[in-house]
Amino acid sequence: MTFSIAARCAETGMFGLAVSSSSPAVAARCAFARAGVGAVASQNITDPALGPWILDLMAGGVGAEEAIRQVVAGAPHIQFRQLTAIDRAGRTAVFEGARTLGVHAAAQGRDAVAGGNLLASTDVPEAMVAIFEGSSGHLGDRLITAMRAGLAAGGEAGPVHSAGLLLVREVAWPVADLRVDWQETDPIGALAKLWQIYKPQLDDYVTRAIDPTRAPGFGVAGDP
User: Which of 27, 129, 189, 208 could pair covalently with 31 via S-S, beta carbons 3.0-4.6 A apart?
Assistant: First the structure.
């Protein structure tokens, strides 16, 4: 029902995750990231509690592989879950339970990890990681490019209807949390358009939160 990529920008330390699914509002349940810690996808028969659990372990100094190992050892119904994680050092880890749905696969690379279930092909995650590794620029752009590569490699076995992009950096909140919760066709394309609107304003929103006196105007009617 889902394919995703979690990644780190080695230059900026930003973490992010992009995800798409045939189910509605996939990013609300499956995407997790924390500044200075890492990013996690908790998917398949999703347990949203597992993402924060893995992030808590990594925040305490445990690497991605050990964090997933501990969660797998302690979580109920773990054979229904598919997990991917990347930690602050760019190390990645994957778990795919025995009851992961349909055609499923995962791929690990330099500063990126991708996974999916009910896929059209096991090649999807590998295509996503390969494109990410060969890309440059803003992490958000690179994640969107990877999602499009996953779709081009087959994506889900059926049509996808939701997508999301989550980015974190030096502040305690997501600097981007963009979602297309339901669209009949091409939610990844809709997410890409939304990102292009949001991207030029991202730094301004952070500045407004940290120090409004240094922030630029809003550029809307009524703004003094």
Answer: 27
* Amino acid present at 92: T
pTM over 0.85, yes/no: yes
Enumerate the H helices of the chain as residue ranges. Answer: 26-30, 50-59, 64-74, 123-133, 139-152, 187-198, 202-210
Within 8 A by CB and 6+ apart from 107, the residues are 113, 114, 115, 125, 126, 128, 129
Supply the DSSP symbol for 78: G
**Cβ(64)–Cβ(75) below 8 Å:** no
* Tens digits of residue pLDDT in 108-137: 999 999 999 999 999 999 999 999 999 999
**Contact present, 23 and 45 (Cβ < 8 Å):** no
In the chain, the N- to C-terminal Cα span, in Å, equals 47
